[in-house]
Amino acid sequence: MVRDDVVVVGGGLAGMTAALAAARDGASVRLLSHTENTLRQASGLIDVLGYTPDGVGPLPDPFDALSALPDAHPYTAVGEGGVRDALALFDDVTGATYEGGHTARNALVPTFGGRVKPTARYPASTAAGLASREADALLVGFESLPDFDAPLAADRLAAAGVPFDARGVTVSFPGDLRADAAVTRYARALDADEETDDAPARAALATAVAAHLDGESRVGFPAILGDEHAADVRATLEGVLAVDVFEIPTAPPSLPGLRLEDTFHDALRDAGVTIETGNPVVGFDATDDRLTAVHVDHLGTERAYGADAVVLATGGLIGKGVETDRAGVREPIFDCHVPAPDDRYDWFRDDAFGDHPFARFGVRTDDALRPLDETGTVEFENLYAAGSVLGGYDFAAEKSGSGVSLATGYAAGRGAANE
């Protein structure tokens, strides 16, 4: 049986952070990921806390509100210091590709829907678009990319009271892309600067946009401006247009999320983490309240991986790390207790945008992030949980999902490494 110091189950932001933190603490680490990384569906923004659980916000400084969070909130277990340490790890991993580390305050980043989102870290590609800047902006959408309606987004930004004039236009993307082309196809065309009928793709795009400029000093595009050479694409457009160029996070699949995934995978490989994907964890071995191994289904054959400690980072209801049926709510791998009302009608509110209890479903833990059973006893002494598998918070309403994933992943990884 293969054995490691730490096995991390789940390959999202929480799992990758846990694996990296454990490896940097000297542990041998294996990361097991069954499905595609959830960063592919995320904006790439790192939100610590945008709104309080009571809906107060957007918060200028997320750290000012941490001490008032409920006891059940994951941030209460890791503390302010734990959040700051996790952000320091993130800053080290991402380097110049992300901004926001110079201040504890939230930035306001425009989204593809024309809203502004409070966030603590943001891709460098979005920096010129911050809503706090007073420079007028031209938003550019593409006829073949209906998910981003630039005129509508500009109107909504204006209605939100941003301190600049925003205007939106729709142009044709250069080249002959199919109407159903994935966003990665747009990125590849700009990465390679593919030839079109008129000019290379970057120059052709700049020419199409230049015709619509009317004194704006910055131009925003949906986040499709390259993948492997995104900085070069943006620099070329800025050079031709003589304006600042920024990306606007869009609906999934997310290129900023994919870029962040690649960055973390590079860091994990550099740290010596073994990464296995595509095979689900289907069982475990335990002795005297301690896990000794997890079992993976590999093409119909079970393989056991021994570990001194395990980190559970499989996601919440959306990621299937927490499941529901008529019998109740459960965590499906280690059968950890998930608190929930017995009556299913108490899981939600009649108001579609109300304070739904199901949004806070997840395992409850002690201060070391070890899951607790129904009586409040630790389930397994060497099992730690991180990310959206945790209960006690509504990451969508609070705008805290990636921050919780980082902070709890960091704490869980270090705890596991020191078993």
Automatic annotation (TrEMBL):
Organism (species): Halocalculus aciditolerans
NCBIfam families: glycerol3P_GlpB, PRK05329.1-5
Highest classification ranks of the organism: Archaea, Methanobacteriati, Methanobacteriota, Stenosarchaea group, Halobacteria
Alphabetized SUPFAM superfamilies for the sequence: FAD/NAD(P)-binding domain
Any Pfam family: FAD_binding_2
Domain FAD-dependent oxidoreductase 2 FAD-binding, first and last residues per copy: 5-404
UniProt name for this protein: Glycerol-3-phosphate dehydrogenase subunit B
InterPro entries in the cross-refs: FAD-dep_OxRdtase_2_FAD-bd (IPR003953), FAD-oxidoreductase_2 (IPR050315), FAD/NAD-bd_sf (IPR036188), G3P_DH_GlpB_su (IPR009158)
One GO CC term, this protein: glycerol-3-phosphate dehydrogenase (FAD) complex
Keyword rRNA processing: no
Gene Ontology molecular function: glycerol-3-phosphate dehydrogenase (quinone) activity
Keywords (A to Z) from UniProt: Flavoprotein, FMN, Oxidoreductase
